[in-house]
Amino acid sequence: MTAAPPARGELAATESALATRPALEARLAPAGRRAVLLDVDFTLLCPDEQFSAEGYRAAGARFGLRLDPRRWHEAESCAARAVEARRAGRGNVHDDGVYEVIAEAIVTAMGGDDPDRVASCAATIVDAWGRCASFSLYHDVRPCLTRLRAAGLGIGLISNTNRDLGGVLDAFELRGLVDGAVTSAQVGLFKPAPEIFAAALACIGAAAGETVMVGDSYHDDVEGALAAGLSAVLLDRAGGRPLAVPGTREAPCIGSLDELPGLLGLPSQTGSA
Fold first, then answer.
1. CA distance 60 to 66
2. What pLDDT is attached to residue 250?
């Protein structure tokens, strides 16, 4: 997903994608898959409570804004529309300003009515978003990466962010489990641009046809990866699947990274002990 204060509302899997899961699993079998790329925010890293409705309310209060948590879902939709409009004019070019756009849209939609205070509040939220201390590792991340590594798969990270992923690897002690990481800030382009996928593949020495992309954004992660020649898996931690979305491309959908090794045909933990 976009690496910014959360503007969720992403599409989950399609009915057809789930219906064809066995065939897709066969295409993801280890004989043809030698590497996995993973998104970072909302895939590996869980934002803390300051990026929730209550967190925004508390941040607003520090700037004299009365923000209404009951408007959270409306605010997320407003932020998604703001990002869509900004991208329509800029394409996939990496854009640091999009983070402020998201935060300001949420603060405003929740009731922020003073432009200067809204901007100051949003800047504080964006600053926090850039710090590793504002995140925790989902419980299923380390076990999944450990199983992928034990199976000999290459592992890379790819994220729409200006955050230093080297710092992320150090902060969460993942360097021994990850071969390389690429950000949109480094490449100059956001996912779903094919160039960022090519850069990530080069970083870990893998070919598109032998690599699976895993992420929580259907548009950025799944469609972007498929267009770049990779296979893809949608991670739907919120459990909102399935939604019928005509015209979308096939990709299996999982609710946890615990499901990924099995989807790739790797031995069970018991069988590999």
1. 6
2. 73
Sign of CA pseudo-dihedral 123, 96, 184, 225 = positive
List, as own/partner pairs, every contact residues 225-228 make where C-beta atoms lie below 8 angstroms and the sequence separation is at least 24, other chains included: 225/37, 225/192, 225/197, 226/251, 227/192, 227/194, 228/194, 228/197, 228/198
Q: In the prediction, which pLDDT does 29 show?
A: 55
* Identical fold, 15-44+138-272 and 48-133: no
Tell me the per-residue pLDDT of 81-100, one tens digit each, with 9 for 90 and over: 999 999 998 889 999 999 99
Computed from CA positions of residues 152, 266, 256, 84, in that sequence, does the dihedral angle turn out positive or negative?
positive
Residue range 169-203, pLDDT digits in tens: 999 999 999 999 999 999 999 999 999 999 999 99
| CATH classification number, 15-44+138-272, choose in 3.40.50.1000, 3.40.50.1820, 1.10.240.10, 3.30.565.10 | 3.40.50.1000
